[in-house]
Specification:
flat, 2 strands, 88 residues, mainly alpha
């Protein structure tokens, strides 16, 4: 039946997952260092300066930013035609 087939597939997947989990600790014991990152790269990353902070604009305070007011909020193109209708 379909239920038996699904159960067999689930058990097969679980057995495969357990087999891979048993193999992982054995491989980790053999090689503890990562093949992608060496110890030298860790040191370089720690010594590197952090990137500069982003350029702060004064748009939050409604001051001009590059010749235009940055914080205008939501302004519809045609305020006369813009209307929120509360219909149910």
């Amino acid at each position: 039946t379909a239920r038996a087939n699904r159960k067999a597939v689930r058990q097969a997947k679980q057995a495969a997952r357990l087999a891979t989990l048993k193999q992982l600790p054995q491989e980790e014991e053999e090689d503890t260092s990562s093949p992608y990152i060496s110890e030298e790269e860790h040191i370089e990353m720690e010594e590197a300066n952090p990137p500069p902070p982003p350029r702060r604009t004064l748009g939050d305070y409604e001051q001009r930013n590059d010749g235009e007011i940055a914080n205008l909020g939501f302004q519809p193109a045609n305020p006369v035609a813009f209307d929120i209708k509360n219909t149910v």
